[in-house]
Amino acid sequence: MTGVSFMLPFVVAGGLLIALAFAFGGIDAMSAANTGSLGFALGEIGAKAAFALIVPALAGYIAFSIADRPGIAPGMIGGMLAANLNAGFLGGIVAGFIAGYTVSFLSRSIRLPKTLEGLKPVLILPLIGTLVTGLLMVYVVGVPVAALLAALTGWLKGMQGTSALVLGLILGGMMALDMGGPINKAAYASSAALISSGIYTPMAAVMLAGMTPPLGIALATRLFPGRFSAQEREAGTAAAVLGAAFITEGAIPFAAADPLRVIPALVAGSAVAGALSMTLGVALRVPHGGLFVLPIPNAITPVLGAVVALAVGTVITAVLVGLLKRRAG
């Protein structure tokens, strides 16, 4: 998760810049024929600079989380090799763990005189860690992980009908099951990482499904006011704002107060939102933003499909919450 959190700013900046490139230069903004135009420049910054750093940042900060600062250089270099070998984010994850654990092992194993101890974090650990990580990526890890990523990419891009619906149901349900906990984060992190491989539909399903719980709760407080206390009805307004910004945690107070009835309703609504999003082919190029990305051209497409998925999931959540919850005492 440390790697993902440091990776996300690159994904956000790159995705929005690519969307703006299409907005200013059309669908062919990044073609060689448009060299020198504003759209081409924005595409270069987003695709060839920001997106090029996604996998190295992911790998570098996974290694950092394991081995502290000496792990950053081996991890980032391993991540760059993963990108160059077409091993993508999967290769980056592997490189980060290899670099992190290699540097951690070396740090514990190498003993130097006190006068030379200062060389260990700035010279010895980065050098040997990079050497080990690089050789393993080039000769052992790169090719099979690249083949695995290619198979995964082909499967995800080829998903239609039932398979897309099932994946959307799973991702959507995961987003609402613990609302910001490890299951939610696993769905989010894997979908955000797929953006670097040009796969945008899981990210859309995850964001829309993550917005559904607080928005559904907010709607339920209006449709079924008798099911909520006065304080909960007031909190519904805040939940709506949080939901619009893709902050799933806005539904936690309501779920904590009545988990056995509220959580199944939230999971059902989010699962439907995710399934609809995947089935309608909604694609999201940035990993956050909620409703605020809708006005940005090409950030989420088709916008109508996203709105439909979100609206249906929200209504289902609200109706189920209203039906399952008891009247407020």
Give an account of the 3D structure.
There is one protein chain. Helices cover 73% and strands 1% of the residues. With 329 residues, the protein is mainly alpha-helical. Strands 1-2 form a two-stranded antiparallel sheet.
Structure characteristics:
single chain; 329 residues; mainly alpha; two-stranded antiparallel sheet; 2 strands
Short description:
Helices cover 73% and strands 1% of the residues. With 329 residues, the chain is mainly alpha-helical.
Topology:
Blueprint: H1 2-25, H2 38-50, H3 54-67, H4 72-84, H5 88-109, H6 119-157, H7 162-177, H8 182-194, H9 201-223, H10 230-244, H11 252-257, H12 259-279, E1 283-284, E2 300-301, H13 303-324
Antiparallel strand pairs: 1-2
Helix pairs in contact: 1-2, 1-3, 3-4, 3-5, 4-5, 4-6, 5-6, 7-8, 7-9, 7-12, 8-9, 9-10, 9-12, 9-13, 12-13
